[in-house]
């Protein structure tokens, strides 16, 4: 067995940004269990920017499942240059069996929880590793906080005014509540509070964010396409409220312990959602179509959670 300083660990995580956020507790747990180990993480290209500056990760390799065979063979070749004491695969793919490893995560898995975040963590005890510890994943750095502050200042936002983060996008059209409904909720909250509002997303979602910012251009701005993933995390970490579809921003809100109102349609809240004192799930129990969910219902839940949080 290698000494602690020489242990190498391989973690194969997922591709979509939201899914990778759900695996960050596994990264933190591995670093807590093996503080001096060399940790290599394999992730998809979209989520890689969230991980590449993390102080918990020693080496990040990108696996693009859409790429050709040559890309995949190069990745295997690079991975085989190192010997791993532990190979943890959250994809449950064949990749760990192509690398040199002493222990690999099992192929056949019996989960106790329905929640995706908890199921990822359950893989560690399947390998006789105890999850947990005091280490937290570092979603952003001081430098990224400073970069965010400059971008907010350029929009005319003062750091003393709390911000509501609104994420109207999602990975698929079926998971997107109509942007007009988001705008209506923001309009109601703007009329009954002193918050600023930031509509966020990637560059493809900029038209959605622009529609929301039109509610009140002085207090509602679009940051879609203007923030890195880690700057977005810094913004969420200080949010008075996160209003989101079932998306990456929703998962960031949970990991960063912020009040979240999550709008769900056809996806399973039992698998991807949370409900606690600062988390609310809103859905129409009679329909999977998000168009059937009234803005008034979402506004009422937002207002209730803000009142309970005593932020405004």
> What characteristic shape results from the CA principal axes?
globular
Q: What's the gyration radius in Å? A: 20 Å
- Quickly count the helices: 12
**Tally of structural domains:** 2
Would you identify the CATH architecture of the largest domain?
3-Layer(aba) Sandwich
CATH topological fold name of the largest domain = Rossmann fold
Rounded mean pLDDT is: 94
Tell me the strand order in the biggest sheet. Answer: 8-7-6-9-10-11
| Uncertain runs | none
Structural class: alpha/beta
Under the CATH scheme, which class of the largest domain? Alpha Beta
- Secondary structure tally: strands: 11
Helix fraction by DSSP (H/I, runs of at least 4): 25-40%
How far is it from the N-terminal to the C-terminal residue, by CA? 56 Å
User: Percent of residues in beta strands?
Assistant: 15-25%
User: How do the SSEs run, as a string of H and E?
Assistant: EHHEHEHEEHHEHEHEHEHEHEH
Largest sheet: 6 strands, parallel
CATH superfamily of the largest domain: Glycogen Phosphorylase B
Overall description:
The strands form two sheets. Strands 8-7-6-9-10-11 form a six-stranded parallel sheet, sandwiched between helices. A five-stranded parallel sheet has the order 3-2-1-4-5, with helices on one face. It is globular. The protein folds into two domains: 4-126, Glycogen Phosphorylase B (Rossmann fold); 142-309, Rossmann fold (3-Layer(aba) Sandwich). It has helices at residues 17-21, 24-33, 48-51, 69-79, 116-126, 142-154, 179-191, 206-213, 229-237, 248-255, 269-272, 295-309; strands at residues 8-12, 38-43, 59-62, 83-89, 100-104, 163-167, 196-199, 220-222, 241-245, 260-263, 279-282. 43% of the residues are buried. With 312 residues, it is an alpha/beta fold. The mean pLDDT is 94.
């Amino acid at each position: 067995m290698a000494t602690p300083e020489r242990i190498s660990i391989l973690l194969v995580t997922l591709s979509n940004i939201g899914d990778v956020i759900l695996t960050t507790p596994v990264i933190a747990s591995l670093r807590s269990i093996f503080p001096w180990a060399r940790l290599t993480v394999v992730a998809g290209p979209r989520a890689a920017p969230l991980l590449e500056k993390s102080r918990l990760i020693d080496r990040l390799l990108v696996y693009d499942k859409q790429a050709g065979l040559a890309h995949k063979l190069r990745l295997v070749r690079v991975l085989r240059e190192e010997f791993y004491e532990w190979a943890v695969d959250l994809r449950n793919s064949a990749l760990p069996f192509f690398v040199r490893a002493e222990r690999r995560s099992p192929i056949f898995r019996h989960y106790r929880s329905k929640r995706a975040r908890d199921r990822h963590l359950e893989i560690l005890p399947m390998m006789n590793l105890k999850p947990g510890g005091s280490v937290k994943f570092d979603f952003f750095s001081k430098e990224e906080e400073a970069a965010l502050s400059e971008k907010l200042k350029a929009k005319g936002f003062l750091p003393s005014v709390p911000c509501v983060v609104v994420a109207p996008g999602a990975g698929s059209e079926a998971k997107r509540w109509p942007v007009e409904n988001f705008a209506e909720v923001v309009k109601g909250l703007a009329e009954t509070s002193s918050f600023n509002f930031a509509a966020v997303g990637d560059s493809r979602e900029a038209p959605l964010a622009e529609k929301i910012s039109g509610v009140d251009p002085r207090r509602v701005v679009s940051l879609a396409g203007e923030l890195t993933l880690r700057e977005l995390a810094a913004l969420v970490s200080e949010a008075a409220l996160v209003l989101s579809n079932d998306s990456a921003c929703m998962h960031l809100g949970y990991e960063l312990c912020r009040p979240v109102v999550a709008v769900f349609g056809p996806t399973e809240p039992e698998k991807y959602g949370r409900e606690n004192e600062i988390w609310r799930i809103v859905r129409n129990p009679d329909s999977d179509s998000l168009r059937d969910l009234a803005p008034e219902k979402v506004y009422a839940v937002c207002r209730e959670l803000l009142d309970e949080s005593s932020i405004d």
